[in-house]
Amino acid sequence: RTRQPEPTIDEGRPDLDPYEQNYRLQQKADLQDDVDEGLDNVLRKTDQIKQYGAETNFMLAKQGQQLRKAMEQTDDIDENMDQAEWHIANMEMCCCVQLCCCCCTCCQPKKTKTERKFKPGAQGYNEPLMSKVAPGTEQRKLGGRQSYVRRIDNIENDPTLTSDERFDQKYDAKLDGILGAVKDIKVMTDDMHEEIQYQNKELLPALDGRVGDVDGRVKTADRRARRL
Fold first, then answer.
1. How far apart are CA 48 and CA 56, in angstroms?
2. pLDDT single digits (tens) 66-78
3. What separation in angstroms does the CA of 144 have from each of 57, 147, 162, 183, 185?
4. For the residues of 47-69, what is the DSSP string, one character each?
5. Eight-class DSSP state of 131
6. In degrees to the nearest 10, what's the CA dihedral of 94, 95, 98, 99?
7. Sign of dihedral through CA atoms 198, 201, 204, 206?
8. For the chain, how many helices (H) and strands (E)?
9. pTM
């Protein structure tokens, strides 16, 4: 492809004097610079929003992990309560033997083991966001930005383009970059919604119920121990 010659003052508007032609060409260049600067500002803002969105998603995923860890700890407390209740039952049996000389097998306490209700593989265990904010995914998210930056660099360094062609192609590349960033932001907001729904509808109600169950078991065990 051969390079097109740059428009000269005489080729622009021959009916205008050179001063007027110069003035109009300068106005056109200034307008193109303003458009370029405005698109660059929009691209910077969308990149910032994407960065904030990625950080927010990561914090939401960490919050979900902490809630899940709390659920696992309630399972640990349940197992400890199994042991405590077994020991309390043994002590109650000793008191029963002393009072009524009953040593039949029906009085023997049976050791139980509470099934862990919140374990790997259980429904609601896996964080929806963890695979999306895992190491390496951020590099893939930056792919869109790197592609349009590389595209603009290629346009800037192409000697076959006229100034108008260069401006038009840079304009298209930056608009494509803005469109890609908006799509990425939409995906991030969908991920946020999914994680918040997961925490509000699954983790928090389950944790609230588990804490209530554990609290009831602790109070019951405390009353039994005080009667010994």
1. 12
2. 888 888 888 888 8
3. 19, 5, 26, 10, 12
4. HHHHHHHHHHHHHHHHHHHHHHH
5. T
6. -150
7. negative
8. 6, 0
9. 0.64
Under DSSP, the state recorded for 106 is G
Q: How many angstroms separate the CA atoms of 162 and 82, rounded?
A: 81
Give CA–CA dist 163/64, Å, rounded.
52
Is residue 102 within 8 Å of 33, Cβ to Cβ? Answer: no
For residue 165, CA distances in Å to 3, 31, 41, 73, 162 come to 11, 15, 22, 64, 5
Token pair belonging to 142: 């930056």
Which string of b and e fits 142-160 if b means at least 16 CB within 10 Å? bebbeebeebbeebeeeee
Sign of CA dihedral 112, 117, 119, 122: positive
pLDDT tens, residue by residue, 141-169: 555 566 777 888 888 888 888 888 888 88
Q: How many CA atoms lie within 13 A of 16 on its CB side?
A: 14
